[in-house]
Each structure stands twice: as C-alpha cells, then as structure tokens.
Write a structure and sequence with these properties.
Layout: H1 5-13, H2 32-45, H3 50-65, E1 72-73, E2 78-90, E3 98-108, E4 114-118, H4 119-128, H5 142-148
Antiparallel strand pairs: 1-2, 2-3, 3-4
Helix pairs in contact: 3-4
Amino acid sequence: MKQTVQMDKIQANMRKGVLTLEGFLGTDTRKLVDILVDDDAEVRRLGVTHAEIARRMTELKEAGEKGLGEFINAGKNIEVKVDSVRGRLPCPFGDPGIFGKVNTTVRDKLTGKEITFTDLHIHMIKTHGFYEGKGSRFRLEPTQLVELLQVKPQS
Ligand SMILES: [Zn+2]
C-alpha cells in the first residue's frame, strides 16, 4: 500500500520530540502505512480484531481502577494495577482527543510477565490499529497483548 501525504504528516508528528519526548516510532524506519499493514496482518493471524483487543484493554483498566493504585485480581491468573500521573497526551493521528496519562499494568500471575499501556494506546489501537513502531519503549506487540490479556473473539 502507498503512503498518503496525510500519513507523511502524521508520521512527522510521531518523531521524537514533536508531541512527546520519545515519539512513537522507536528505531522503526518503515513507513507508517507499512507498520499499520504489518500489525493488521498479525492481528488477523491471531484471530481477533483491533476493536476486540481495545475492548479487553478497557475492561481490564476498569477492573484495575478498583484497586486504587495497587494490583488487584481481574480474572483467571491476571492481576491489574492502574496509576495516573499528571499530564495529557494528544493523539498523533490528529483527531481531537486528548488522553490522560493513565497507566494500566496487567500481570500474568503464573509467569510474572507484565504489560503496561496507556489510555492513548487503547485509543490508537481501537481507532487506528497502531501499536507504535518497533524499538519504541511503548510498543505493544499484538501477540503478547492477546496472550497476556487473554483477548478472545467476541463471537
Ligand atoms: Zn486518534
């Protein structure tokens, strides 16, 4: 797929120091369109959708909020902690949303593995199918998300 001029502008916003200090691309040198296409293919292979992943992330965040900053159980072998820090982040795709810096950490109690994501991640996955570039500190690997968060198809 060919990258549009609009996507070039979005990709420019994702660079280090434009909207955020670290940016959204890490060391990824691919075009944004290719990052999106590759992750979309991976999510399809996993048998789920971006919307289903985002819905599960939201569900776990909401469950975790009841822990008031401490880990609490959120289903089979999973515990969740939700922390908020000051500040807000805009979406690099340029839509009007501004997102609070809420970190949700999901831990697999059997393996000890953890994934931390923000409200902006949930939005970017749901609305744009974007998981950040490879090498970004905040990159979420679709396979790891689906496994650790136990994402299941809705029907
Ligand atoms: Zn957006």
